[in-house]
């Protein structure tokens, strides 16, 4: 097992075992993790569904948010960032009992922004369920690299 895969598995375990909202991801299974790309799968269960018995749109947004963040953590920089923009296009329903594949990859990672794309597909039919785009602010790398402790001459 690769180091990236092992680290991502450990991160997912810590997210789902700690109290808080991320516990909703406990049924998501990591399939593969490589620099800038993560693939997961899950079976849609009743607690993931809306009143029509299909994958809830809000849960889909949570998957886009979290799985794209995992892809960012698999890069050399390894920074999760904070959300700036996220949109999801819903194309077909995923019913209770169906398996879905969630594939996130980094489209571009710059000094301060990262752009990601996430596809949710029906594992059996290959039909696209939803596609998300997620933009994250990574912070200013120069701030961290050039930060220094002021000496007495620097103080006023």
Structure description:
Helices cover 24% and strands 34% of the residues. It is built from 3 helices and 6 strands, in the order αββαββββα. It has helices at 3-17, 57-73, 141-146, and strands at 29-34, 37-43, 82-90, 99-109, 113-122, 128-137. Strands 1-2-4-5-6-3 form a 6-stranded antiparallel β-sheet. The longest helix is centred in the middle third of the chain and has 17 residues, at 57-73. The protein is globular.
Protein traits:
alpha+beta; about 160 residues; six-stranded antiparallel beta sheet
| Quaternary structure | single chain
What is the structural class?
alpha+beta
Largest sheet: 6 strands, antiparallel
Main-sheet strand order equals: 1-2-4-5-6-3
| Mean model confidence by pLDDT | 88
Helix content: 10-25%
The coarse silhouette is globular
- Beta-strand level of the residues, as a percent range? 25-35%
Q: What is the tally of beta strands?
A: 6
Gap between N and C termini? 54 Å
SSE topology:
Blueprint: H1 3-17, E1 29-34, E2 37-43, H2 57-73, E3 82-90, E4 99-109, E5 113-122, E6 128-137, H3 141-146
Antiparallel strand pairs: 1-2, 2-4, 3-6, 4-5, 5-6
Short description:
The chain has helices spanning 3-17, 57-73, 141-146, and strands at residues 29-34, 37-43, 82-90, 99-109, 113-122, 128-137.
């Amino acid at each position: 097992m690769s180091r990236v895969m092992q680290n991502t598995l450990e991160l997912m375990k810590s997210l789902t075992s700690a109290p808080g909202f991320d516990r909703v991801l406990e049924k998501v299974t990591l399939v593969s993790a490589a620099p800038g790309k993560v693939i997961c799968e899950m079976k849609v269960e009743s607690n993931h569904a809306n009143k029509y018995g299909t994958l809830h749109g809000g849960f889909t947004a949570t998957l886009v948010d979290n799985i794209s963040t995992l892809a960012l953590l698999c890069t050399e920089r390894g920074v999760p960032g904070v959300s700036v923009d996220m949109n999801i296009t819903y194309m077909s329903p995923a019913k209770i009992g169906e398996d879905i594949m969630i594939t996130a990859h980094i489209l571009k990672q710059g000094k301060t922004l990262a752009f990601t794309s996430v596809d949710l597909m029906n594992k059996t039919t290959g039909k696209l369920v939803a596609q998300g785009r997620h933009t994250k602010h990574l912070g200013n790398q120069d701030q961290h690299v050039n930060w220094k402790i002021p000496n007495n001459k620097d103080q006023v």
